[in-house]
Amino acid sequence: MDSFTDAHIVTMAVKSLLYEVSLSPKPGLVDRFNTGAHHDMDLTLFIDSSLSLIPYFEAYLEAGNRHHGPLPLLFDRARVIGVDAEKGMFEATNGTNTHKGANFSFALVLVALGYYRGQTEKRGLLTATDSQKVLTLIKEMCHDCVMADFASIDQTKKLSYGEKLYCEYGLTGIRGEAASGYQTLQDLLLPALRGYITQFGQEEAFLRALVLLMSEVEDGNIIHRGGIKAWETIKEECLTVTVQNLATEEFYQWLTDYDQELIKRHLSPGGSADLLALGYFFMQLEGLI
Prior knowledge:
Helices cover 74% and strands 0% of the residues. The protein has one domain. The protein is mainly α. The longest helix has 25 residues, at 220-244. Keywords: ATP-binding, Glycosyltransferase, Nucleotide-binding, Transferase.
């Protein structure tokens, strides 16, 4: 495509959420085959949640398009829109948290992309360098603010689960990812996907990328359900499979078996899934899917 309109980009973002939840089989996660380690959500709920975010995705992108001035002010604007987006999501899901983390990340990516397009007049496909520059803008937007939030966390009366993890273990979660400019995407996920898609095709590429993320990512969802030890065990198990580079049939069988294992353990790598959705978004922007 020679040029992307804002409507095209918003559609890509929503498709990214739908592609991620539809990818199957995903260990411990909601997919087309089962509800994973979840009893309060299913595929249709994720579809409803994804569609509820459309007007807010539009607002994020427009805010980036229109922004002039210091980038931290754009972060503040994204936060304001994000509060309304979260309310809209919870209304669509009757209070179930389907996309809280994804909403936070897509807010930052979309405002940064809108700003980048406005500053560079880039309207077509992104290169790998463009993608990196968009992610680096996120670091410029929110690094200082996020770090200030962490520094003053002892003054917070009611801590979120992520804030408790920071206090207890020094884990920074998705806010730490954002403050780094999504270094996991820049250094791990996007380079891996560019190679996997060529080697394996779209579905298998993203499944292998998910396992790669599970071997590396600081996943608050897993830690919340099973603790630090459970998270470290999953990382070790997924690293072993990644290094083995199983043939396609063996890999799919392992995924199927591991899905049942994580369901038994009641563990779900939701943090990795949120990052994978961003991978879908950038691969569309780069024209690779």
